[in-house]
Design goal:
- With 401 residues, this protein is an alpha/beta fold.
- It has 15 helices and 14 strands.
Length: 401
């Protein structure tokens, strides 16, 4: 049995975004594949230093609350890596690790030092790039620093995992990594995790945002520029004109939130929708169930988990024809795609779904079938196979020395 040390800056119950859920589901799936998984992550003062959950051994370093200023955040990440390194060294005295697996630049320094100390291979999963998030504008600090760390760690790692072929191409082109060293393993989804309210709770929730005869369009995610919510708001007047009674709901928070609210105000949209702010998983899973349409208008999207969550929740979904969304959402089947950065194209496709009840039903049925291609058991099996391959190559190199 291989023993792997996984590093991630977040892990449930500490959740900053989708990374925590990804690492948990993958780690638990790897345990089922026979891998001895240890996760080194951070926690608050109330968090246990060590525990076992879902068969995964979780080790936490205590860190103060992260700063919101990006410049301060970089210094905070460096301190976190130093603490993770110290904790990882102690773990190495207790356990023999065959491989280190890090997630994103946030744990790069600790991953590198620990893999070298353990004399074992290093695998890095890149979930997104700073270059992509900022449309190539990475010449100023702290973007330049983060970009540099990403370039260094992807070239340092024995193998890089990307969640889509789009991301593999990005990693190869932007960081100069040979494509053969980048393995594509998609994210997974487990419909059983998407637990909504009961029927009465769903009716009450929908009544907060729309009347029974009205249509409800859902926009969910981090409110940042690259998610493209500004494009969806720009399209909403045309959607409302074409499908009278349509309302929108923006669920999430982020640096772009106030600007989006001002945009909605300027467009005269505030009486047609709601900005809900940050929401927990229980409410999020219910929002998919009460919406008539979910729109994913991303400018940059490495994968597109929101689209899969919508499909798994029987909510018709339309997405921008860009990035990993092209691979996640098949056009004219489980979902529909529209030209990216084009509010008119978004409005046209949204109206197709809102006006055609039968189309929506077909999308729901095909979406529920399509998500079976993203089973966590398959994701874990592919990752475990990659571990064994990388470990075998490292063993061969040692024997040849």
């Amino acid at each position: 049995m291989s023993r792997v040390l996984v590093l991630s800056w977040e892990y449930p119950p500490l959740i900053e975004g989708g990374l925590a859920r990804h690492v948990r589901k993958l780690s638990e799936g790897l345990v089922e594949q026979g891998v001895d998984v240890h996760v080194l992550t951070r926690g608050g003062e109330e968090s246990p230093a060590e525990e076992v959950a879902g068969g995964v051994r979780i080790h936490r370093v205590i860190e103060p609350k992260r700063p919101t200023d990006l410049g301060e955040f970089v210094a905070w990440v460096e301190r976190m890596n130093a603490d993770m390194l110290a904790a990882g060294v102690e773990l190495g005295d207790r356990f023999d690790f065959d491989l280190v697996h890090g997630h994103d630049w946030l744990v790069a320094m600790a991953c590198d030092h620990l893999a070298r100390r353990f004399d074992c291979p290093l695998v890095i999963t890149i979930h997104a790039t700073e270059h992509g998030r900022h449309q190539g504008w990475v010449d100023k600090h702290p973007q330049s620093y983060i970009h540099g760390v990403e370039r260094w760690i992807t070239n340092r790692a024995d193998r890089v995992i990307a969640c889509s072929y789009y991301m593999r191409e990005q990693i190869a082109d932007i960081f100069g990594v040979e494509e053969g060293r980048v393995s594509v393993i998609p994210n997974g989804i487990d419909p059983a995790d998407l637990q909504p309210h009961d029927e009465e709770g769903l009716r009450e929730l929908r009544a907060r945002f729309a009347q029974p005869h009205e249509k409800l369009v859902l926009l969910v995610g981090r409110l940042v520029y690259e998610k493209g919510f500004q494009l969806a708001l720009e399209a909403m007047p045309e959607v409302i004109t074409g499908a009278p009674g349509t309302r929108f709901l923006v669920a999430g928070s982020g640096t772009h939130e106030e600007e989006l609210k001002r945009q909605a105000q300027d467009l005269g949209l505030m009486e047609h929708g709601t900005f809900l702010g940050w929401i927990g998983d229980d409410v999020l899973h219910s929002l998919y169930r009460i919406a008539d349409l979910c729109v994913v208008p991303s400018i940059y999207e490495p994968f597109g988990l929101v689209a899969l969550e919508a499909m798994a929740s029987s909510c018709p979904c339309i997405v921008a024809d860009t990035g990993g969304l092209r691979e996640v959402v098949p056009d004219e089947g489980a979902g529909l795609r529209f030209r990216p950065r084009d509010p008119d194209a978004l409005a046209e496709v949204a109206l197709r779904v809102l006006r055609d009840e039968e189309l929506g039903k077909r999308m729901i049925a095909e979406g529920l079938e399509h998500i079976r291609s993203f089973d966590w058991a398959d994701v874990a099996a592919d990752t475990a196979a990659l571990y064994e391959e990388v470990i075998a190559v490292a063993d061969e190199k040692r024997l040849s020395l």
